[in-house]
Amino acid sequence: MLTAAAPPKPSARRLFTSEEFLAWLQPGVFADLIDGEIVMHSPVNLRHADLVNFVERLLAAYIEHEDLGVLHRESVAVRLSTRETFLPDLAFFTKGQVTRLAPSHAPFAPTFVLEALSPGTADRDTGQKFASYELHDVMEYWILDPQKLDHRFYRREGDMLSEFADAADRIDSASIAGFWVKRAWLNPEKFPKVSACLTEILAARKAERRRRRG
Fold it and tell me: What are phi and psi of 63, to 5 degrees?
């Protein structure tokens, strides 16, 4: 069993299983298991942290208000396969999924995943992890870029995650009913107040429900 807090460094290359990785993982340690290899998370800059914090506060408040499920940060491990376990920046699980969560990790893919890019993780978030989220039925994947603001949004279409809302001013979630953000809100240099954004989203949600009732 793996016991060290630092990733193991075997003399010969060996691949680790998700069970070994989860046994090794400790509170406060942030890493992914990608293709059987442990990859530590590097410290993030303030733009990255602020962007994730903003979306977390807004989305968590909306999910709680609508009673849709739970939102977890990167402290929760998501086991996708025998040799793939990730700690997403944000992961949304529906109420039905919450009942199937294990005490120490999620043994299946979330409905919604958000990853914010950093220099050390960008290639993995847009490459290996993207492919794995696509393979394991994540319904929606947001990739936010704190530096260039080149945010990308993907939703499930059959077996693939296809990009949507390219250059759109408003991004409507494909998997979280009634939730949306304005692209202008996702700028770490000028965040609006979370409370004002939530009020605007809920007002639009209420108006949409009235229209549906006729």
Answer: -60, -40
Contacts of 160 (CB under 8 A, 6+ apart): 134
Of 47, 192, 54, which Cα lies nearest the Cα of 117? 47
Q: How far apart are CA 4 and CA 127, in angstroms?
A: 28
Give the pLDDT confidence of 190-203 residue by residue, as tens digits: 999 999 999 999 99
pTM of the model: 0.91
Phi/psi zone of residue 29: left (φ > 0), alpha (ψ -120 to 50 degrees), beta?
beta
pLDDT tens figures, 22-34: 999 998 899 999 9
Alpha-helix residue ranges (DSSP H) falling in the chain: 18-24, 46-66, 95-98, 122-126, 128-135, 194-213
For 106, the domain range is 44-213
Task: Give the total number of structural domains in the chain.
Answer: 1
In a domain, 149, yes or no: yes
* Cα(161)–Cα(103) distance, integer angstroms: 29
201 vs 150: CA distance, rounded Å: 23
Amino acid at 191: F
Q: Is the pLDDT of residue 45 over 80?
A: yes
